[in-house]
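ok here's Acyl-[acyl-carrier-protein] desaturase:
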Amino acid sequence: MSIHNIRKEVMKTLESKIHGFVDDFLIPIEKIWQPSDFLPNSQNENFIEEVKEIQEISKELNDDFWTVLIGDTITEEALPTYESWLMELDGVEQDPENGWSKWVRAWTAEENRHGDVLNKYLYLSGRVNMREVEISTQHLIADGFDIGTSTDPYKNFVYTSFQELATYISHNNVAKIARKKGHKLLARMSKIIAGDEMRHHKAYTAFVKEIFKIDPSEMMLAFEKMMKHKIVMPAMHLRESFNTKGSLFNDFSTVAQRVGVYTGFDYVDILRKLNEAWEIDKITGLTAEAEKARDYLMKLPDRMYRITERIVIPETQFNFKWMIPA
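and the structure:
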């Protein structure tokens, strides 16, 4: 049996549990928060005053902070890219009754709210050149990105387990900074978005844990390959108007690390957490090749931590087209 067919069989086995996954990790549409719960109500007579208050408070946050928030918003808005890639996985079918396609659509629908509320908030803040932000968003969706997983659900679920925890960290740190600056509304928004990302992280780690029970050696090898390939951030192809694909990522990454929203140490910590969540040190019945992969994964966090300690974050100031001076 080919590797694709084996993956499909495993996914078919897990599909019988998909309704439980949906109930455990997603929230019914009528009960979950919506962007309008956090934004000023345009039908309220105090709407203009509330917007002015947001704009005044927004002046207290520096350009580095807004740059990170813009990058987070743009990557959240690139949802069409992520859904289209997940719908191509082995075992996921376009059939509306397919359990996995139901999961992908429901997960995407939850994620869609994040970009929606953040985009509107950026617009109201008065600190952002929204046309430039919108151009970057359109470029990111049009450019697409290759995370090195092909149609392999094992690799893809490693990616989503990692990436959802990374976005939790990023939004949670934004919330902390906003709260310290007295930006209570933005802090609440970012905190609740972070909560969504943590639920999604737990879902994808649960999927991987189930696969480890059924196909431990191949799951271990997929985990190793993803970590050797290194997790590619969705923002890797960020660009501004009239610039080339990916030309903005290094500058954006520098700012995110400088602000402390997402750093190399966070990357290492996520890897440690995945090793612990999947209890890879306790998994039995592995092939010799998978045992070597396990050894590599167990040693990797310490090795990467030592490398990260030597990285110096430059203080270079970048002139992003996204920004309007305070």
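+1. The mean pLDDT is 95.
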